[in-house]
Amino acid sequence: MKTVSLTTKAGNVEGVCDARFAGVLDAFAQNFESRGEVGASCAITLEGKPVVDLWGGKKAPGGEPWDKDTISIIFSSTKGAMCLCAHMLADRGRLDLNAPIAKYWPEFAQNGKEAATVQMTLDHSVGVPHVRDVPRPGAFNDYDHMIDVVAKEPAFWTPGTRNGYHAVTMSWTVGELVHRAAKKRMGKFFQDEVAKPLGLEFWIGLPEEQERRVAPMLPAAPTAESMESRFFVKAMGDTNSASHFFLRDFMAFNANSREGHAAEIGAANGITNARNLAGMYAPLANGGTLNGVRLVGPDTLARMGRVAVATHEDATLVIPSRFALGYMKSMDNRHLPGLDAASCLISEAAFGHVGAGGSFGFADPECKMSFGYTMNQMGLGLLLNERGQSLVDETYKALGYRSNAGGAWAM
User: What's the predicted TM-score (pTM) here?
Assistant: First the structure.
């Protein structure tokens, strides 16, 4: 691999890059030159081996350089890690995805949720995309409190009859099922069973000694166009909608606080960088096992990557969406009016998760590739913005994929 050291107007870009992926390096540098990137990292593995590991820019405008070990919050990209824990337990026979949630968590079976199944927590159909009452300050950082609130929340719809993105509550619907099945909290299970065996620096509940490495998140400034998107019109115009509660809850969470980093919020507060995000997905791109570390078997892996739900209008995001069990699939909404950065174009075999502002991690078993992208300057839109999508596009081009015109990258 070639050592990279180049200068952009937003700061230096460092790392290593296989010559085959020169287009990814060019796109990464261009993000700093013309697309508003402040600090970021991008990493790719192929057949389990690193082929791209880049970082650059600043931890904050005019601040310290974003270096090899800088980490940042990845928001909903964390869901890929949390849901992996659930699938690992299912693979081991300790969590039955078809069983009623009440089998593991009897307190959840109330207020219209009595017949809800474990699988419904993973495919966003369980019917508690948010909680209706305004959370008290710091509520999301209090795991036990939120478990109680979510268990008591009346269903927004009959579980299993439709799907709507569970942006934050998935932390507790999936997280508590992992807790009960594993007999340990999900953040610890992830550390013990995924991060440590794979040698990953990736936390859901950041230790205080790692705080010095964290780059603060920089919010995106709304534009007139973004405020006219379907999602914002729904969120601002219907105060009883799941869209409204999503926006409310996102604005209530302090992503730059020590308390927000230390908490276990499995849908939203994972902290890592691209190298380790791609590293988590690398075994899933290679049959479920890598370097002697087995995460899941082939049957579970096939289930993880299969489309579980698809809809013309997600009840929360107000866009057509496609999900596997806990993971996003390729979503192509480029042709629809009134949308802002509402697509995520990968191959049909790939699965992963986007985070607010544009971070992204995924596995592609078809080409044995895993990908990670993290950043501190958030972008607008619900899914991938131009910065992240350009890196994904160049990755697939390097691997010989022909086009994404059909809605997913294809050979």
Answer: 0.98
